[in-house]
Each structure stands twice: as structure tokens, then as C-alpha cells.
TrEMBL record:
This is Uncharacterized protein. It comes from the Bacteria. It comes from Kutzneria albida DSM 43870.
Amino acid sequence: MSRTGAADTSVLGPDGYGALKLGMSRSAALASGVLSPAKPVASDPAGCTGHDIVGHATGADSVGVYVSPTQGVVQIAAAAGWHTPERIGIGASKAQVRAAYPDLVVNTNGAHASVPGNARAVYRFNLDPAGKVTVFELALAHQECTN
């Protein structure tokens, strides 16, 4: 909650973004008013659909949310200005991410860490050559839509 008592609409995690929750069915996610209709994606592994968060459209070649036909919402990518409950967002340094998430694993595909308060989920981070977060997302640790 913010100082005014209103919910902070820029927090991604530990369970989702606002009314959009990991594991929520496609129909429930669409009914939440947070998820846009499906949009074309380059590939649709396992019949997954790509969507955007209403008011946070991504480019034509990307999506903000992946939904599995069997697992529901499996991944939510952060929009500009969003952060985790631990205040990690785009522009954070690798050292800040590691301080917030001591189990951070960095590899050639980026970095990932467990999500405090949600044992089923991970945060995934893309880091630029200087070690700054350029993209982050909340995802089910074991899901069929994305790596």
C-alpha cells in the first residue's frame, strides 16, 4: 500500500500483477480487465497465447504475458517503472539484485532467483554488459511456454 492507502500499481510479485495472478486461467485473466486479447507471437509453444497488460502495450514482436492452456498465466513481464516488492526494477545493478535475492544465479541466458513468498515462481532478469537490469519478469518456475 502506498502512503495514501491505495494499492501500488507498479509492483510485480510475488503472485502476479494486481488482479492478474500466476496460474489464473485465460478466461479469468481476460475477465480481470488487466489482460488484453491475445496477439500474434512468433511461436506459440504448447498452444500458449501472448497478451499485453492493458495500458502497457509491448511492441509487435513481443508480449507482456504468456498464458498456457493447461497452466494458465505462466509469465508476466514488467513494464517500465515496475519493481518487485523488494524494490528491484529496470536499471538496478547486479549487486542490488543479488542483495535482494541472495540465491541469484547468473548465466549466459541472464539471471534468475526464487521469489520470496512464492515457492512456485522465479524472477528472471536480463542484464546488460554493465550488469544493469534491462528486463525482468515473474514466471512459474516449471511451465511450458517459455524458458
